[in-house]
Design brief:
- The two termini are about 50 Å apart.
- The strands form 7 sheets. Strands 9, 10, 11, 12, 13, 14 and 15 form a 7-stranded mixed sheet that branches. The protein has a 3-stranded antiparallel sheet with strand order 4-17-20, with helices on both faces. The protein has a 3-stranded mixed sheet with strand order 7-16-8.
- The protein is elongated.
- It has 16 helices and 21 strands.
- By secondary structure, the protein is of the alpha+beta class.
Amino acid sequence: MSQGGTVPVLVLKEGTGRTTGREAQKNNIMAAKIIAETVKSTLGPCGMDKMLVSSMGDIAITNDGATIMKELDVQHPAAKMLVEVAKAQDNEVGDGTTTAVILAGELLAKAETLLDKDVHPTVIIEGYKKASEKAQEILDKMAIPICLTDDKVLKQIATTALATKGVGGSVDLLAGITVNAVRQVTEGTEGKHKADIDLIKIVKKHGKSIDETELVKGMVLDKEVASSGMPKTIENAKIGLLNTKLEIEKTEFDEKINIESPDQMKSFLDEEERMLKEMVNRIVKAGANVVFCEKGIDDMVLHFLSKAGILAVKSVSSGDMEKLSRATGGKIMASLKDLSADSLGKAKKVEEVKIGDDKLIYIRDCKNPKAVTIVIRGGTNHVIDEAERSIHDALCVVRNAIEDEKIVAGGGAPEAEVAKALRNFAVKVGGREQLAVEAFADAVEAIPLTLAENAGLDPIDIMVALRAKHENSDNKYFGINVTTGEIESMLEIPVLEPLRVKLQVIKSATEAANMILKIDDLIAIKGGGKMPPMPPGGMGGGMGGMGGMGGMGGMPY
């Protein structure tokens, strides 16, 4: 080393990769934009599907944003934050995941242009926060109140969610099923309605077609009758729900019984049989003709139950027992001593049904079930899986509409109205933050633009026509009819969405974009196994460990 030279000071572990300042921001924004670009083509009723192939060779065919994000093996840390946006959106409202990811990507793309003009990230973040609050306020004013009993509107909301999925001509049937299911589990408390969609069980069975999907006003268990000697069908069922073993309890410590003669042996066996028979007598005395047991049932007890003409099912999961209780109105009993006529559930019919190679127990037509089951049928497993994802989204949007009693138009109408109002608002904000608010307005318009693009329409023509319509305040519900390519009232088609979905899209996309904009230093620690390897040229390198998005987000082929 030459005299007067400087000694290099190693603060970080040798081999640690680090990008700072403008370069770190550019790389993070690039990663987020690529993720948004990946799901862009799936938006709307004309969106395309993605085929995701896992390292094990499992295939998923879907256009559901949450599923695509879940399946992608994303390595880049900034891109992972967009995956979190999709998860948050799915957990919170169950729909709008693709919209949230696209909006977050667009907000970052617009921010990049401002950064190039030397607008400081803090100014952009502040502007985005103000724009986000204003956008939510505008959406709230646009919202249309609805009534819980308005089946027609609820069905239209479900239809809008299902129309963007791959369920073909079964949209009407599935929309009716989802509305009825959510209405059935809705409960009113203090003037508000609460719908817990976890009480809607979904059973998937391969065979027939989606058109054979049915709503069972009761429960369907993937079980069979416990003994071949039992009846396979019981009409006017009185159902006992037991959380206890129907067998002789084993003691917790080792014991020894000395039997010295055949008579003693016979007495011992007779006593055991008497105890088991006594269990069955208690069930008969309570008036039960169907028994669901969470634990095991002794063979001898099964024999006596068969003789009494009682249908029994053993080893039912605790989750299913809870739903059975809510569906039939029965109480789960931890002891046979407590079983009485008052604790029994009721159903019109309990039967064992054979579907393909499987046997299922159907508990049908309960009086006012607070838990129901949707049995999904379909030609292939991929069809059934996509139908399940579609039904889940439809259940969520109907629940949101029932709980909030507020909806907005779809088809890009709210986004166009928000963009118009934000541009007027930007002038009042003034200063450099005005640029960020205008950028937010441009980003929001990416949703109708993408809808038009995916439908094969000219996005620029559509955007010009949409803006022109929204100049008149009476046309705030006008959006894109992707079938005709015209700008029409979304209330007349109708295309309707819950207000909650739109609000959550704005919230989660803004939060993710602002968090990524705040990062100006990216340190990847080598050798700790805690961060992905740095690609050539810092964290950029065509999106780090995402395999350059080779065939769908670095999915191994």
